[in-house]
From TrEMBL:
Region spans: Disordered: 1-25, 168-211
Descriptive protein name: J domain-containing protein
Matches recorded under InterPro entries: Imprinting_Balance_Reg
Pro residues bias (residue ranges): 176-188
Amino acid sequence: MKSNIGASVSPIPPMNPSIPRRRAKDAALRREAERYVSTAKDLLSGQITEDKIERCRHLLIKALGLDPCAPSGQALLVAAVALRATHHHRYRLPSGAPDPYLVFGLNPAVLTARDPAVIQSYYHQASDLLNRSLCSHPLDPCYPAFSHAARLVADAWAVLSDAHRKESLDSRFEKPPPPPQPLAPPTAQPGRGTSAATTIPSDVAHGRRAG
């Protein structure tokens, strides 16, 4: 199955395991980040629509750019990215489930995003953040969003941690072999004899003169 997912979907990973996260030193930046996070929480509370998810995601990316450790910021972004994947109707499994790579915020058109070690690292971080949020804030208005996202993350991991299912999914990005090129018909070359299509009169062949 061929896919052009990389051309039209550019999910932003919810986490980068190689970058240490520390709170911003500037108090003004921390306050601004917290305002973004607060607005994002309001968007993920109650009825969640595609527009709300997209706006929430952008706000959280801004917040974490200002303060990488803004309270609840990472967990909310993980949830927003996972929920966003449910709205990419063009990229679904045969079962109807969302593309598991998009649930993690990974672009499967990029080879490194399909690395099992990268996927496992993202899964553990996403699962840990969501489960801690579910355990710590059972009355949080965002609890349904966290719960839904946690199920999506678990289902995505079930697919990507299975070597056979992952291989089948990744086959979308394998380039098909080039079609065979037709052979050129033989042609006569000066001084190299005649082509297979040229016949020699029998009289000439036996050295006899015609007429």
